[in-house]
């Protein structure tokens, strides 16, 4: 330890942590800042601990696999972020610069530490470190011989932080650079001791006047300067430098010199650019995702429109055939569920943030189980599973969104089917326990390893490698189920005794007390027809146009249909409709253009225009209004809503 020279007070009390170690990491010297951060006394560290002992497990692994080999090969390690542990067990994220040098035939590593809580904190610590270095420079001018050994250690610290010192003597116009700055730029000795003109020529021409102005202003105002600029490397490349400093003056107020610190921030700037580029790419990807979802929603809604119309037509035809009633109810239920899910698909960000709108009503859990089993039946049959359903002993009523409850149960059933080998057994049961209904889905499948039970409900969580099956999916099903259960005020948990021992998922939801149960709702009544209107339907989907026109005609309206925009405008001029329902994505001109052309006619100003489209985002509704539409309806159209609109017309 006697070979380690004394350090100046500016080094000892620097705002950054400074540590000297032997090649194996044994701490030889630690300044007061470092000791204070980690709650050690110097005696507890020096000669008794290796620096890597203060790293977390991951940090020690990184030290062994990367840090030590790099330091051995290239003599320095720059801006490494490692989590370290204080004597109290607190974890501190640190930015570390290290460099290796020999002193008195012995190898030492000089380490500079900065708390990496955030960039601003890091920059504040760098500024404080630079100020400390500036103070030590003033001492070094007067005591150069005495503090030569200390200057060597300080030089290592500056080198580790990729700093360099420069100064300009005003009288001689000479500019001098420290060895650290020469090392950063790899310029020759002859260039180091150059005039200010020679120095300024190394500054990028776009930054040169800015640098000169900063120096001139600092001299005139006797203030510090701070500037970023590009400095030419010996290779011809450009380093991004941050310069900070000030001028010195005689007792008479005459400027003597300008000096300061230059810090190579090229890596930081490159990282910032990468982050900026990455953000741009993410923004582009997010925009493309939104566009894709909007297009997908449009394409999924369009086929649903004629199906919904035909259902309404079937409803108009009274029949006592129970099979027809059953068939119609199944189709209507699944069209409604598909429409509901498409609506949520269009707002996928709300789903990920748990902001899904619940359409609650009082429902019997047994009915939800039956509907969920129905939607999962195909997958069960495909994989030859035996599904057993144990219904509750008495009706259990909950206040919930029926589509979401069906989605919860069917997702759990599908999950069990996917991860159970063919021919397995799956059991769905429900029972009341206190003021909760308990839903359980158990299987004889591949099970869940104990270490993965805690993460099973995380987004994109999948079991591996046992789940490498054709039904693998994206791993969002259980995360979505968990989110929906929580939105209903419930809980979900998973059980498994291990791999190949099956699993059980248990959902608990609050029930409605008997005093809160509402009278059962009857089937919806056939809507009262609106006053007869002349209505033109324009849609390039022939099935959608004809079925909607037929449905409107069956309700007492006089209708015509067109399958392109120009024909629609021409028919409107002849037919003079009171109401026009127009699709937006037509083959020749858009529905917006149709609205514009209609409104250009005197008779068209009184027509009630309704946009009917699969595009259902807010911006689509705004575009429709701007084009002259009075109303925007998203496919598939709810005929009750349309009938209400027609009844309100005067």
TrEMBL record:
<keyword id="KW-0597">Phosphoprotein</keyword>
<dbReference type="InterPro" id="IPR003661">
    <property type="entry name" value="HisK_dim/P_dom"/>
</dbReference>
<dbReference type="Pfam" id="PF00512">
    <property type="entry name" value="HisKA"/>
</dbReference>
<dbReference type="Pfam" id="PF08447">
    <property type="entry name" value="PAS_3"/>
</dbReference>
<feature type="domain" description="Histidine kinase">
    <location>
        <begin position="295"/>
        <end position="513"/>
    </location>
</feature>
<dbReference type="GO" id="GO:0005886">
    <property type="term" value="C:plasma membrane"/>
</dbReference>
<keyword id="KW-0808">Transferase</keyword>
<feature type="domain" description="Response regulatory">
    <location>
        <begin position="534"/>
        <end position="650"/>
    </location>
</feature>
<dbReference type="Pfam" id="PF02518">
    <property type="entry name" value="HATPase_c"/>
</dbReference>
<dbReference type="InterPro" id="IPR003594">
    <property type="entry name" value="HATPase_dom"/>
</dbReference>
<feature type="domain" description="PAC">
    <location>
        <begin position="225"/>
        <end position="277"/>
    </location>
</feature>
<dbReference type="Pfam" id="PF13426">
    <property type="entry name" value="PAS_9"/>
</dbReference>
<dbReference type="InterPro" id="IPR000014">
    <property type="entry name" value="PAS"/>
</dbReference>
<dbReference type="InterPro" id="IPR035965">
    <property type="entry name" value="PAS-like_dom_sf"/>
</dbReference>
<feature type="domain" description="PAS">
    <location>
        <begin position="150"/>
        <end position="222"/>
    </location>
</feature>
<protein>
    <recommendedName>
        <fullName>histidine kinase</fullName>
        <ecNumber>2.7.13.3</ecNumber>
    </recommendedName>
</protein>
<dbReference type="GO" id="GO:0000155">
    <property type="term" value="F:phosphorelay sensor kinase activity"/>
</dbReference>
<dbReference type="InterPro" id="IPR000700">
    <property type="entry name" value="PAS-assoc_C"/>
</dbReference>
<dbReference type="InterPro" id="IPR001789">
    <property type="entry name" value="Sig_transdc_resp-reg_receiver"/>
</dbReference>
<keyword id="KW-0418">Kinase</keyword>
<dbReference type="InterPro" id="IPR011006">
    <property type="entry name" value="CheY-like_superfamily"/>
</dbReference>
<dbReference type="InterPro" id="IPR036890">
    <property type="entry name" value="HATPase_C_sf"/>
</dbReference>
<dbReference type="InterPro" id="IPR036097">
    <property type="entry name" value="HisK_dim/P_sf"/>
</dbReference>
<dbReference type="InterPro" id="IPR005467">
    <property type="entry name" value="His_kinase_dom"/>
</dbReference>
<dbReference type="Pfam" id="PF00072">
    <property type="entry name" value="Response_reg"/>
</dbReference>
<dbReference type="InterPro" id="IPR004358">
    <property type="entry name" value="Sig_transdc_His_kin-like_C"/>
</dbReference>
<feature type="modified residue" description="4-aspartylphosphate">
    <location>
        <position position="583"/>
    </location>
</feature>
<dbReference type="InterPro" id="IPR001610">
    <property type="entry name" value="PAC"/>
</dbReference>
<feature type="domain" description="PAS">
    <location>
        <begin position="3"/>
        <end position="55"/>
    </location>
</feature>
<dbReference type="InterPro" id="IPR013655">
    <property type="entry name" value="PAS_fold_3"/>
</dbReference>
């Amino acid at each position: 330890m006697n070979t380690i020279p004394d350090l100046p007070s500016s080094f000892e009390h620097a705002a950054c942590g400074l540590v000297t170690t032997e090649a194996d990491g044994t701490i030889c010297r630690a300044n007061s800042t470092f000791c204070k951060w980690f709650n050690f006394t110097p005696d507890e560290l020096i000669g008794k601990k290796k620096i890597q002992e203060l790293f977390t497990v991951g940090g020690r692994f990184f030290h062994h696999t990367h840090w030590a080999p790099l330091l051995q090969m290239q003599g320095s390690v720059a801006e490494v972020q490692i989590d370290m542990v204080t004597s109290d067990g607190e974890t501190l994220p640190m930015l570390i610069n290290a460099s290796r040098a020999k002193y008195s035939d012995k190898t030492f590593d000089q380490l500079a530490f900065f708390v990496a809580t955030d960039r601003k904190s890091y920059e504040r610590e760098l500024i404080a470190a630079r100020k400390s270095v500036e103070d030590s420079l003033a001492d070094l001018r007067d005591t150069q011989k005495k503090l030569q050994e200390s200057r060597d250690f300080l030089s290592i610290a500056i080198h580790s932080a990729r700093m360099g010192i420069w100064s300009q003597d005003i009288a001689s116009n000479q500019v001098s650079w420290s060895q650290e700055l020469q090392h950063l730029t790899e310029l020759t000795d002859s260039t180091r001791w150059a005039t200010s003109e020679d120095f300024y020529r190394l500054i990028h021409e776009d930054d040169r006047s800015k640098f000169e102005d900063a120096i001139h202003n600092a001299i005139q105002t006797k203030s510090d300067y701070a500037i970023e600029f590009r400095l030419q490397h010996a290779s011809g490349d450009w380093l991004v430098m941050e310069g900070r400093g000030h001028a010195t003056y005689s007792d008479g107020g005459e400027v003597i010199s300008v000096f300061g610190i230059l810090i190579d921030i090229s890596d930081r700037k490159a990282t910032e650019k990468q982050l900026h580029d990455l953000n741009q790419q993410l923004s582009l990807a997010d925009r493309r995702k939104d566009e894709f979802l909007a297009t997908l929603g449009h394409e999924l809604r369009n086929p649903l429109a004629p199906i919904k119309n035909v259902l309404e037509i079937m409803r108009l035809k009274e029949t006592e055939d129970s099979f027809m009633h059953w068939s119609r109810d199944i189709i209507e239920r699944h069209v409604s569920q598909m429409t509901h899910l498409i609506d949520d698909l269009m707002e996928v960000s709300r789903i990920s943030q748990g902001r899904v709108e619940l359409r609650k009503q009082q429902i019997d859990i047994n009915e939800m189980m039956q509907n969920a089993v129905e939607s999962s039946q195909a997958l069960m049959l495909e994989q030859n599973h035996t599904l057993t359903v144990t219904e509750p002993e008495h009706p259990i009523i909950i206040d919930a969104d029926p589509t979401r409850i069906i989605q919860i149960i069917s997702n759990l059933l599908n999950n069990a089917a996917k991860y159970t080998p063919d021919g397995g057994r799956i059991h769905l049961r429900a029972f009341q326990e206190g003021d909760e209904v308990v839903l359980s889905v158990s299987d004889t499948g591949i099970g869940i390893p104990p270490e993965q039970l805690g993460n099973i409900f995380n987004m994109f969580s999948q079991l591996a490698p046992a789940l490498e099956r054709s039904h693998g999916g994206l791993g969002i099903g259980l995360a979505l189920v968990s989110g929906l259960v929580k939105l209903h005020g419930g809980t979900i948990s998973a059980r498994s005794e291990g791999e190949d021992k099956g699993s059980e998922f248990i959902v608990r939801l609050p029930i409605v007390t008997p005093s809160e149960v509402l009278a059962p709702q009857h089937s919806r009544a056939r809507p009262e027809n609106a006053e007869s209107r002349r209505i033109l339907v324009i849609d390039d989907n022939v099935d959608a146009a004809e079925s909607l026109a037929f449905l409107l005609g069956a309700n007492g309206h006089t209708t015509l249909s067109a399958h392109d925009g120009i024909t629609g405008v021409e028919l409107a001029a002849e037919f003079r409709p009171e109401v026009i329902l127009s699709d937006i994505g037509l083959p020749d001109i858009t529905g917006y253009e149709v609205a514009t052309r209609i409104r250009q006619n005197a008779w068209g100003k009184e027509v009630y225009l309704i946009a009917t489209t699969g595009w259902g985002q807010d911006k689509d509704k705004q575009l429709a209004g701007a084009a002259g539409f009075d109303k925007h309806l998203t496919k598939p159209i709810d005929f009750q809503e349309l009938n209400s609109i027609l009844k309100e017309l005067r």
